[in-house]
Amino acid sequence: MNETSFIIGDAGGTSASWRVVDGEEIKQFKTIGYNAYTHDLADLKENIVQCFGTELQTERPVYLYAAGVSTIEQKREVVLELKAVLGSNLQVENDLVGTARSLCGKDTGNVCILGTGSNACYYDGREVSTVSASLGYVLGDEGSGAYLGKKLLLGVFRDQLDGDIVEAFHAKYELTAHKVIQQIYYQPRPNHFLASFSHFIAVHKHHPEIYRLVYAAFEDFYDAFFFRSKHVDEVYHFSGSIAFYFSDILRQVGLDKGIQIQNIVQSPIAGLVLYHQAYG
If DSSP codes are grouped into helix, strand and coil, which group holds residue 227? Predict the structure, then answer.
């Protein structure tokens, strides 16, 4: 079945990318992000109305892929909250499903997300299956922006990094260890705070110590999600800002571990348009 008119949303923890497809015409929108474990649906609902305007006045199919939405109850909650603005023809899936459909189509492969958080699955061409629990930024999220930020802060405030990196950090951020702790424990979305330091890491990624920090984080991701997976020898696909902006280091880790990394994209949204145009 070919779709000619539909809306697609891909929501991560930081932002959500949207495409409104009418035949050959495609309009782009961006809203705040959504994660079922850390965000309020009311905020996303309000932001959708502000950004979309009259685009929401038709009953076209809407496909929303969102972080953290994995159980039937979570999907039902999102549909109930958002159908008032997105219409009753709304289908909700986990963001891993969206990434798998975008990058694999109907093929098999290991599908990975490295953004604010991290997650991974195996895709059999139809459905995804968990390879390991993500566990969030406190216990897990290896290789993610939040994970990189945590490692950087540990290195800075424990004097485990070279003096020039520590000096550059303090020149950019007016932070003390006390302020960092206050931000993490008493302010909303501490994972976003931690992930915000990935920009600094990207600027300095060719510094030997920062390179090793990122390299080790990607090793941790692989070991956390795929160490015991029976599909370790299949091809790998990555989506997310961290995978995209650190793709050179990510591919080097893949080479050193003997794994085949095929696609690395910043966002799966373009591939999702193609998927739903082809398969509905």
Answer: coil
Q: What are the tens digits of pLDDT across the range 57-71?
A: 667 888 999 887 878
Is residue 230 within 8 Å of 208, Cβ to Cβ? no
- Residue 13 tokens read as 């923890």
User: Which are the contacts of 84, defined by CB distance < 8 A and separation ≥ 6?
Assistant: 45
DSSP states along 62-101: EEEEEBT--SHHHHHHHHHHHHHHH-S-EEEEEHHHHHHH
CA dist 50 and 151 (Å) reads 37
Q: Residue 100: what residue type? A: A
β-sheet bridge partners, residue 109: 123
pTM of the shown model: 0.86
pLDDT tens figures, 213-253 = 999 999 999 999 988 778 888 899 999 999 999 999 999 99
Q: Are 163 and 175 in contact (CB under 8 A)?
A: no
* Sequence-ordered list of residues with C-beta below 8 angstroms from that of 97, at least 6 positions apart, any chain: 65, 128
Question: How far out from the chain centre does Cα 170 lie?
Answer: 28
Least Cα distance to 90 among 73, 78, 102, 72 occurs for: 78
Strand (E) or helix (H) holding 125: none
How many CB atoms neighbour CB 270 within 10 A? Answer: 16
> What six digits make up the tokens of 196?
């915000």
Q: To which H or E segment does residue 128 belong?
A: strand 128-130
By the 8 A CB rule, do 99 and 111 touch?
A: yes
